[in-house]
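for the record, two folds in this file. i put them one after another cuz i was lazy. first one right below, seq on top, structure tokens after. the second one comes after a little note so u can tell where it starts
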Amino acid sequence: MDLQKTWHLAIQNQISLTNSKMKRALYLLLEDNCQLELTDNTLAVICNSTNTLSVMTEFGSEILSEVLSTFENKSLQIEFMLKDQRGNIIRCSDILSEKSCFREPSYNYSNINSSKTFNNFIVAPRNQKLIELVKNIVAGSNKNNINPLNIYGETGLGKTHLLWAIANSIKDTNTKNNAFYMRADRLLRQYAESLVNKASDNTVNILNNVASGDIFLIDDIDSISKTEKERELFFEIIAELINRTGVKVIYTSTKKANSSKNLTESQKKFLNRGRSLQIFPPDNSTKEKIIASKCKEFDIELSESDVNYISKEVSSDVRGIEALIKQLKLIIEENKEISLADIIRLLNKQYK
């Protein structure tokens, strides 16, 4: 018997029996992220993520019943398992026995870095338009009603800083509305766990905690886009957030969200009602300002010529610039001074 073909047919049958878009997306997620193995009297269901495991244990019973009906052996036992990133197989009981780390989005901003604000976000000239638009959304003067907004660009350009700046601005100035920040993979996990916690198919815990005018900030959708089905489920959740609650959604990615070749027509239609704006790498002048800002943050002094030299040699990755400044600080603390040779040595080590 071809187990994966049997699995596929069972899922397609369940999809044909439901009118719920969300449930269909969940079934498709299971199809791509689970595999079956038969050993002795046990049918093992191996899930490749905790998200999938949560969905499987709640919504997989009808699919598995259909799979089991194809076996002559009616005494088969089902065992759920999880495959970790190293390929190790973990028994489901070892996972489900642990306390869940599930938390609702909260208004206490505990997962926001309060030091990241608009004031210390160094804006490159090409990013002025993006910053102005974001500030207008925060201020509630989003005249074009852009929703959702996709901010995309290379790693290390400040996308997370910008989301935190939005949240901190709302916390400090807006008494009516709130901001929620969450990584995309955690949003997907929370959604799956909310369903396991017996929330209905159309009303999940996330939706009960946001209101019209709130801003939902979702970081790094690349963390969940390993398969087409995960992306499909993600965009279903975002559409539900916007359509049901009126919440404004801003999310980040490394590439323009609607440029993917794997998007369905409904996903393209949904994304096109929003807007995607690129965050561009800083030019040398902006990098000089970033370096000067990081020197001030870590309390070290560099000469103007040193700052100029570094700006020409480093990449646009702000995290890389910060790492370099931290290493320079260690040298200064040890030797009481820094030389150009030290800077060159560190640059060669970091960017070789």
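(here's the note) second protein begins now
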Amino acid sequence: MHKLSDIRIKELISRAKVIKKNGETLVDLFEAFAKENGLSKGSVRNIYYKALKGGNGGELKAKPVKPFSENEEKEMIRKVLFARKNTKTMKEAFLLVAKGDEKLAMRYQNKYGNLIKKRRADIMREIINQKRVTGSCFNPYLAKSQKEERVKLKKEIDELVKIISEKCVKENQLLKQKLSAYQKLCDNCYEYSCWGLKGIENKTFSL
């Protein structure tokens, strides 16, 4: 989890108290605070609730969250994997499954992240089942390996472009040096030619 200084966490709690007092939601606060501190909205939310659970929220208290049952986890995985086929990002898939409820979507995202690491066998089983029924299914593990390959390929391309650019710079510098030397040679030849013609004009010939 990303970290914030104690002062910034106290500021977050203080601003949350004002918002709660006004009967507003914390979504906009999390988003604004995330931009101010270079974090994601989800990270700020996690930091906020961790502070409340640690007893640092004063009168603000975190409501107890009912944990997902095993059946709920499996159903969530099924819905998220199915939704991901029709969305551009995982965030859109979570929102789709949560029917636009950002708070619930964040719960799904956090739980999904844990399940990806701990329940690979169950997730792969669901992927196989969906492929059998619909013919296709989003595979988070394959997507991760593809992303790593794209990052690796981009790095190799960037390095190649850098090498080519450096080579072009050196070749341009060498070409400029050659052109400069050639220009000096031409200037010298022109000067010599002018002096030669002047000498011929000053000569007298006798027949």
